[in-house]
Records
---
Amino acid sequence: MKKWTRDHAVNQDQLDALAPMRELFELPPGQIYLCGNSLGPLPKGAAPRLKTLLEKEWAYDLVQGWNRHDWMSLPSSTGDKIARLVGAGPGEIMVTDSTSLNLYKALYAALRLQSSRKPGARIVVTEKENFPSDLYMAGQLCRDLGCELVKASQPENLNDLLNEQASVLMLTEVNYRSARRHDMRQLTRLAHQAGALVIWDLAHSAGALPVDLKGCDADFAVGCGYKYLCGGPGAPGYIWIHPRLADHCHQPLTGWLGHARPFAFEDHYEPAAGSSRFLCGTPPVLSMAALDAGLDLILTVENFGGMAGVWQKSLALSDMFMTLIDEGPSFRNLRVETPRDPLSRGSHVSLSLQGELDGSGYALMQALIARGVVGDFRSGDSGDPGRPDLLRFGITPLYLRYVDVFDAVEQLGQVIARGEWRESRYQKKAWVT
Ligand SMILES: *Cc1c(COP(=O)(O)O)cnc(C)c1O
């Protein structure tokens, strides 16, 4: 493998077909932002969009805005934009609620469907390393419904758990810690062979890599609006239901906007056709408009090679990052925890800490942020060697340049070489990490 130099990185940027996309983001000067997997940066189109919404639509049109500006259609019109990124069709995705709530609705609906399709199967299969909120939601729902949540300790064990007891397989495609990526097509096929339904969480997939929900024949999917989709802090999440199932689904949160005729104010609840029955209450129009602006930005990649091009650049940037860590003399106490195989990883790189750096990951990240390189820290479990503390770096090719990755690793080397992480001001943990 070639040795990276800064000149080589600059050269790669000149050849990069995605380079013009960077101009579409509002990026703080002097910062290298490697946290777009946690909160995407502000699209330049978002502020004017919100300004119009606030100062013209809300201020002057008031309640008539619902019809004049079609606010009520935002869950499905914004969902149609996400559909183009994940291999779903128009009308199939609703932008609504949070990822956690959507997961709850999807799992409840799947278990209800299975109670007649595969009666007696009471197990929801997932993995120990799934995102905690997904496990909390699923765990409580299983307890309430008399089902059991079984967590595979290793992805290799999932296959064995997909047996006659398995009702639903619920997984996150790309792991939030290591970036390890499941084979969605293969696991969906194995689950279906066992008669189980499958729910995929796309929080770290959509907008980062090509996803083909229908091509993989998945049943349900949920995902997040504020990470790779750049919808802004607290942006709503989304839910997809395969059209062969949607009309048969029963979801537990029967709010009026999932009704077939919300404005008839009828006494009885009748679910709307298709995915719309997964709506619950009034859409958060301001947040949805910001997410819609984020999606408009992301969909402009269709002019620059599409998600396949984004994915190629993500792999190249991550390879560069990992190679620089492997080779740098300052990094002998850092270990790459992200899989090297391009098909087995998502779009961030995680490093664990050994030797004199062990236990200092949070402080190290704070010292790096003080130098303008923003990643984040995910604490591990001191009792579990398979779960180390991690430094996490999001690789978001729409605005990151090769030279940014090169410079970020340089800065990391200096923080370590100079022992800056030992300073007391970097030791105190904030509420959000
Ligand atoms: C970020 C993330 C969520 C977030 O859930 P919210 O309900 O939006 O807070 C859920 N699942 C996964 C896998 C995530 O990465």
---
Amino acid sequence: MSSPVFYSLCIITVIASTFLVQAVGALRLKKCPSYVMEKSNVSCTCLTKMKKPHNVTWPGHSQSGSLFLTNVQRSDNGTQYTCLLTADGSKEEVVYTLRVAYGPYDGQVSISPSHLVRNGTQPVTLTCTAEDTYPTPSYEWSGVSCENQVSDDACTFSLYPKDNGREVTCTAESVTLSRKPSYTFHNSVRGTASGTINLNVTLLRPDCGEDLVANSSEQFITSPGHSNQYCVWHITASPGQQIWVDSLEMELETRDPCNRASVSFYDGDEKNGKLLGKFCKRLGNYVPIMPASGMATIVFVSTWGGSGFRLIYKTLPGCVESLTADSSIQTIEPPGYPEKYLTNMVCVWQITAPAGKSIRLNFTDFQIEKSRSCKWDYVHIYDGERGGQLLGEYCGNKDHQSKAKFKPVTSFMNKTTVVFKSDVLYPARGFSLQYTATDTV
Ligand SMILES: *[C@@H]1O[C@H](CO)[C@@H](O)[C@H](O)[C@H]1NC(C)=O
Ligand SMILES: *[C@@H]1O[C@H](CO)[C@@H](O)[C@H](O)[C@H]1NC(C)=O
Ligand SMILES: *[C@@H]1O[C@H](CO)[C@@H](O)[C@H](O)[C@H]1NC(C)=O
Ligand SMILES: *[C@@H]1O[C@H](CO)[C@@H](O)[C@H](O)[C@H]1NC(C)=O
Ligand SMILES: *[C@@H]1O[C@H](CO)[C@@H](O)[C@H](O)[C@H]1NC(C)=O
Ligand SMILES: *[C@@H]1O[C@H](CO)[C@@H](O)[C@H](O)[C@H]1NC(C)=O
Ligand SMILES: *[C@@H]1O[C@H](CO)[C@@H](O)[C@H](O)[C@H]1NC(C)=O
Ligand SMILES: *[C@@H]1O[C@H](CO)[C@@H](O)[C@H](O)[C@H]1NC(C)=O
């Protein structure tokens, strides 16, 4: 008798060991799933190309080459079924090992560290736990960009204050496939479960930034040179001073919507203030800002090192003022006049005359961007407070328009408010507006 030789056949994950006497490799398993979901049925076929006469059976289970198992249970996992080939003078066996898959039936997300009170950037790790599952599922995260993913079930990322309240979901999915050589999938088992967590962040101190005071000198803010940062600058000015912030350079990320690095501008502070804009590149963006609240806040968030930004800030003297009219002729001119005025500017002048008097206003020069209905750049003159009765709305060029349009106006009350707004494009010379107190008509 020749000594038995041991072979092992590997059909993807189905391990079949073959003992043979003569019929080398004559037996194979076909459509036998590598994993079977619990409570389902299994159909597995054992085949040979050997010429008859021969018998192929699953001793104790089937008199033919077809094995059929119903309602498999977890306890059946690991059970081995032997297929036997008998032919004249030879014998061969192949073993099918049943693997029973189940779940996942529940999922949970946990976070470490759990206490998210932070100074600056803090890396945190989320862990996804899929309950009651076999084999190991795959995990997918949504609501978060995982950075250094050590393993599928763990997600590490840097937490920013803006993440407060954000919902992060992990979905665990068990999909087990066996693949035929033709690369078509057959027989998959599938189970999914997901878990969700709400991030809870309290910022104690940002990574960088400063509390700054704007004055009439030009001052600058330059981006810090690292990625993974959260920086906050607050710029204030003395009461009645208009703050003006513009970007000189900004190239952080070329893809919208500025997910990996951005600079946000707020009118007021970053918690309660109004978001004026979020930018990651300068071109085409409306970067110059003038907050109405007396405080500008700049928040820089970065998970990626772009080439950075440089901002300029200063106050605009003569842009927000309370003036008094008397019998003399005084003049209002926007900052920059008679050179180009600044873009994205809002100036507000309040003029008060003695009780019983009116105010007469007369443009001696006027050249600002012209638009239909003066919707881009304009001067509004109100009787009384801003938002009161509109005495005049102006844009364009005084020399090119009918004289009537620019004839002097006189207020009814002893107060008038002049508002000048410019947009981001086509700044021009500006205007010169004379005002004087007159007897009420
Ligand atoms: C499994 O087979 C049994 C008997 O043939 C049948 O009644 C049952 O519906 C099958 N179950 C599934 C999940 O296919
Ligand atoms: C096949 O099985 C039948 C019945 O069990 C038996 O009579 C026959 O001899 C077997 N044939 C071979 C080739 O083993
Ligand atoms: C199922 O059986 C396989 C093969 O015997 C074994 O490796 C695995 O650990 C078993 N799984 C469970 C959950 O018992
Ligand atoms: C935050 O920074 C302050 C001052 O540097 C320090 O005393 C405090 O322990 C830090 N807190 C945390 C949570 O890191
Ligand atoms: C966030 O965490 C703080 C401190 O651990 C806790 O007091 C607060 O209730 C938490 N908020 C939410 C919405 O979970
Ligand atoms: C504005 O403030 C800066 C920084 O404090 C200072 O160096 C500069 O002299 C100030 N300029 C004026 C005009 O006050
Ligand atoms: C004129 O101005 C004074 C304050 O300067 C105010 O008290 C008064 O009501 C005003 N009178 C009119 C007629 O608007
Ligand atoms: C208004 O200004 C123009 C110059 O642009 C001047 O000719 C005119 O006399 C002024 N009108 C009044 C009422 O001051």
